[in-house]
């Protein structure tokens, strides 16, 4: 009888413990800072993505849950609003988020509370904007440019072991190396994204491959600044509009016409040649 009671007690304890969460669920604020704040602000303007102030009043809750979980799925399905947002923000994909409905709702509640000013806090997005402002005051020295290029091309290793940027990305500069072709050409990235945008992407990459490559290998702030400075230089020096190629096309067309004319004349002259007696 005693053994049965002990077994019953053990079973009861196991069932009770199995219903306990393995870890405390993060608050909406914590989730926002870790998942959203690298690309979004609440009331501080656009960053990589739109300012989220008032988003709860602008969109249906069900739509927001689906979009936050997988915006690219909605884009591929042809959702007109998702496609419009994707196009408006430079076709930069928002990463999928493996969050429960309750976790997404806690983020939305936090955004709503923060937007009213009731719980105004400094987010990591604002910190990124502050870093961008500091970058603006930096003297883009030759040393900083060399450091950025060394990190990009892999001449110098990232402190946390991340792969060099050139493994996937290309830039146009005086180097004959250029870089990889697996991802975006970054020559015009500075004009397209600005300082805050590049800072946000390096902090929390929205691209799945880049996110995976940098997982657990976060760059230091100094490394980010060096890369931003390098991309600023490359953009100013090499991001030029392509020359008008209509002149070259005209030359090709005229060459073809002349060649055709010449062939016709040769054929006529050959066909009408006089055969000697």
Question: What structural keywords apply?
Answer:
277 residues, mainly alpha, Cytochrome Bc1 Complex, Chain D, domain 2, 13 helices, 58% helix, 0% strand
Could you characterize what this model shows?
The structure is a single chain. With 277 residues, this protein is an all-alpha fold. The protein folds into two domains: 97 residues, Orthogonal Bundle (Cytochrome Bc1 Complex, Chain D, domain 2), CATH 1.10.760.10; 113 residues, Cytochrome c-like domain (Cytochrome Bc1 Complex, Chain D, domain 2). Helices cover 58% and strands 0% of the residues. The chain contains 13 helices and no strands. Helix 2 packs across helix 7. The longest helix has 26 residues. About 12% of the residues have low confidence.
> Mind telling me the CATH superfamily name of the largest domain?
Cytochrome c-like domain
Number of strands: 0
Helical stretch tally: 13
In which range does the helix fraction lie? 55-70%
CATH class of the largest domain: Mainly Alpha
- Count of individual domains: 2
- Beta percentage is under 5%
Query: Structural class of the helix and strand makeup?
Result: mainly alpha
Quote the distance from N terminus to C terminus.
133 Å
Q: Give the overall average pLDDT.
A: 76
CATH architectural grouping of the largest domain: Orthogonal Bundle
